[in-house]
Write a structure and sequence with these properties.
single chain; mainly alpha; Helix Hairpins; 5 helices; J domain-containing protein; DnaJ_domain
């Protein structure tokens, strides 16, 4: 199925169908199907007049690959499929896990910003101390 075409108004019913693999497909099978479809539907190689269609398919192929190749996203997707929600699933949706990662990244950015501020102040303090230390040393030499 990776090389086949889908009816124009009806697409595959799941990311597995879209990539043309079984739901028990391995990571290797997912990668192979993705590579084959990505080469076929990449917008840069689309026939004249079909670039819009190929772009839409390529984006969907990319989303399917990103979802199914990531064990955590795949588990969420499979859970949604079991509930009948697979048509609304998006690999780009925000989950609680994504929010926790974003919070950690924000905390890390703030920490790094504070650390670099401390380093700048420390370097400034050292440079002014060196200047002052040099001045004091010259004054001692001159007065002796």
């Amino acid at each position: 199925m990776p090389g086949g075409s889908w009816p124009p108004m009806m697409g595959p019913s799941s990311f597995y169908d879209f990539l043309g693999i079984r739901e028990t497909g391995t990571l290797i099978e997912i990668k192979q199907a993705y590579k084959q479809l990505a080469r076929k539907y990449h917008p840069d190689v689309s026939p004249p007049g079909r670039s819009e269609e190929h772009t839409r398919r390529f984006i969907r192929i990319q989303e399917a690959y990103e979802t199914l190749s990531d064990p955590e996203k795949r588990a969420l997707y499979d859970l949604d499929m079991a509930k009948g929600l697979h048509l609304a699933f998006s690999a780009t949706r925000h989950s609680k896990f994504d929010e926790q990662i974003e919070e950690k990244c924000e905390w890390k950015r703030r920490w790094q910003s504070q650390l670099s501020g401390l380093e700048r102040r420390s370097m400034y303090k050292e440079s002014t101390n060196n200047v002052m230390g040099g001045q004091l040393q010259r004054q001692r030499i001159e007065s002796s």
